[in-house]
Structure formats: structure tokens, C-alpha cells
Design brief:
single chain, Dna Ligase, domain 1, D-amino Acid Aminotransferase, Chain A, domain 1, nine-stranded antiparallel beta sheet, 11 helices, globular
């Protein structure tokens, strides 16, 4: 097992080969670490890592070989099988720990965990039959969001159920594949915000400034920092993040998404979901803060002290989706714009191909 802290030159294993793994590897290399990636398919992280292994997450022989070749293991997304992380933990330290995946991979477990933390979430029903789906819709005045409990992201695995919409509850259940489902009440929110919190091995917690997010077709389009919320909500978001990340005995970076709602004339935060990894809405930290979310994550899992990562500029992060990336020359020519290309080959509609951070002076 790993001794703390890891010295520069140590090897970090990354599960997943997407853009988050790529940016983790870039941050790790600047601190002197050597990264290796493990993934069933090749992706942009392979371009940056010094080594890589292509095998299924269920391949125990390959997993054991990989774990024995690195000093610590992390992951770039939350849909890796929990069993994979638990198996790897026999040979090598893995951060975040498997319990974070268990909570975040199942929306029902996640909602109940958040309630136990004392935070507000949208009302929900565990959908086990058409009868209790109909009961939930009745309680929610005929409107709700029906979601798969597992493996949903960027709007996938969910259907809006509205009184005036033609799709029936039975059709929605069938369309989602008759898998375990959860019905969430529609939240009348004013805006969506998020926070990136990091917890170190020693329990220290750091939280970046809150981002205000805009989605298009369920995919994050922009994150603006600072968010247009009052100071009390800023403080509350950081308190909630500290509570969640500590209750999980978490190590690494976590993204927490909120709805801003007004209740009894006062603004409040409703937690939408947690992501046990570096997060898209934290990409602004790469250029507008003294240290990025990726460096903070690497520091945390390697037992280093967390940096006092101060924001030095206002910023708007914009995702480049699909063929947006073809305008790279335009983005690269703009003043105070930092351009990031994920080096993906196929620019499919809605696919995250890169992002830009447009900086402006502190207001």
C-alpha cells in the first residue's frame, strides 16, 4: 500500500481515458508524477500518459497487473464498476474510496445520503411499479422527471413527465428500459450553480468559488465565476460541500451541483447531485485561479498539502461542442481567451471537444 506523501517521480494510475483523465495527467506531470491509464477503449488521456493498458474493467488479471505498477489510483468518471475499485484496493490505494462511487452511482442512494447530511433535495419517489409512479406524479401535481437510478449523465437516462405532454408514464418506463427508476419533483429554480471541493488525506478541505451554470440540451454550455448569488449562499454552499465531503471520508476533488430556489421570500440551495471526480464546471480553474481543480486533486490523492488556490480573474468557461472545435483559429486569436482542445477525433453533435476560458478583470 502507498505511503504518504508520494514523491515526484511516483506513478499515478488513472481509470478512464477521456478528457478529464487527460487534464489530470497534464496536472500530474507538472508536479513531477508519471501517469498510466487503464480503460477498455483508447482516448485522449493515452496521449499524455507515459503508459496505458486497454482491458475491460472486469479483467482481474489486467487490473492486478496495473495496480502493481503504480503507487496510487484515481478515476476520471463515476460509472466505473464499484467492484473494479474494490478489487484494485487490495493491491494499491485508490482515491476517492469505493464508498463514494456506491453513493453517487445510484440516484436513490445518493438522495438518501444527502438527506442524512441534512441538506435539501428535490422530493423523490423510488419507482418500483406503475402504481407508485402514478402515486408520485399525483403527489407532484402531475409533473416530474423520471430518471434511471444508474448510468445517467448529460440528460441521458431521463424523461420529463408533464401533464400536457403526450408520453404516458407506462411509455416512459418502457423507453427507459424498465430498469430501476426514480421520480423527482420538478424544481422551480432560478439558476443552477456548482462548487468544486477538495479534501486531502489529512482531512483538510478547500472549496473553489461558486460557478453559475447554463445548460443547453442538458449539456453544460457555460460556467460563469463569480456566480450572481448573495454572500450568504456562497457561505452556505461551502458549508454543504464541507459536510458532504467529510461525511464520505472523501479524498480528492468533488463537484456538487445546486439549484437556487426562493422559499418564503428567501433564496435557498437544493442539491441536485454530486460527482466524485473533477468536474466540467470547474474547468475555469485552469486559467482563472492560481492552482486548478486538477492539480488540487493530484495533490490530495498523493498526500500533498492542498494549495490556497485563489481566483485572480473573473471568467466565463464555455464548452466547445461538436464542430465548435473547428473554429480553433478564431478562439486562439481572441484576447484574454485560453483555448483547450481535448484532441478527440470525431466531432459528433453535442460531444465535448474542448473548452475556452475567457478572463476579465476582477470586478
Amino acid at each position: 500500500m502507498t505511503k504518504r506523501p508520494l514523491k515526484p517521480g511516483s506513478a499515478i494510475g488513472i481509470l478512464g481515458s477521456g478528457q478529464l483523465g487527460r487534464m489530470l495527467a497534464i496536472a500530474a506531470s507538472s508536479l513531477g508524477f508519471r501517469c498510466q491509464v487503464f480503460c477498455p477503449t483508447t482516448g485522449p488521456a493515452f496521449d499524455i500518459c507515459v503508459g496505458g493498458m486497454t482491458a475491460k474493467y472486469e479483467d482481474k488479471a489486467a487490473l492486478a497487473e496495473f495496480a502493481k505498477s503504480v503507487d496510487v489510483i484515481t478515476y476520471e468518471f463515476e460509472n466505473i464498476p464499484v467492484e473494479t475499485v474494490e478489487y484494485l484496493s487490495q493491491f494499491c490505494t485508490v482515491y476517492p474510496k469505493p464508498n463514494a462511487l456506491k453513493v453517487s452511482q445510484d440516484r436513490l442512494i445518493e438522495k438518501n445520503f444527502l438527506l442524512d447530511c441534512g441538506v435539501d433535495v428535490a422530493r423523490f419517489y423510488d419507482v418500483t411499479s406503475i402504481e407508485n409512479l402514478n402515486k408520485g406524479l399525483y403527489d407532484f401535481s402531475g409533473n416530474g422527471v423520471l430518471k434511471t437510478r444508474r448510468f445517467g449523465y448529460d440528460g441521458k437516462g431521463q424523461i420529463m413527465l408533464l401533464e400536457k405532454e403526450p408520453i404516458s408514464p407506462v411509455e416512459a418506463m418502457n423507453e427507459l428500459g424498465n430498469v430501476p427508476l426514480i421520480l423527482e419533483e420538478l424544481v422551480a429554480f432560478e439558476k443552477e450553480v456548482s462548487i468544486i471541493a477538495i479534501r486531502g488525506v489529512n482531512g483538510d478541505v478547500f472549496a473553489f468559488d461558486i460557478a453559475e451554470n447554463v445548460h443547453q440540451n442538458h449539456i453544460l454550455k457555460t460556467s460563469t465565476v463569480p456566480a450572481d448569488i448573495d454572500d450568504a449562499l456562497n457561505v452556505k454552499a461551502k458549508e454543504i460541500a464541507h459536510n458532504i465531503i467529510t461525511r464520505l471520508d472523501y479524498v480528492g476533488a468533488m463537484g456538487i451541483e445546486f439549484f437556487v430556489v426562493t422559499k418564503h421570500g428567501k433564496q435557498n440551495l437544493v442539491v441536485n447531485e454530486i460527482a466524485p471526480r473533477v468536474h466540467n464546471s470547474g474547468h475555469w480553474t485552469m486559467d482563472a485561479a492560481t492552482h486548478s481543480q486538477f492539480e488540487q486533486h493530484i495533490r490530495a490523492i498523493c498526500g500533498w498539502p492542498l494549495a490556497n488556490a485563489r481566483r485572480h480573474s473573473n471568467v466565463v468557461m464555455e464548452n466547445l461542442l461538436g464542430t465548435d472545435i473547428n473554429d480553433w483559429q478564431f478562439y486562439a486569436s481572441q484576447e484574454d481567451v485560453h483555448f483547450h482542445d481535448y484532441a478527440k477525433n470525431d466531432a459528433r453533435p453535442g460531444r465535448k471537444m474542448g473548452h475556452i476560458n475567457k478572463l476579465s478583470k476582477w470586478a
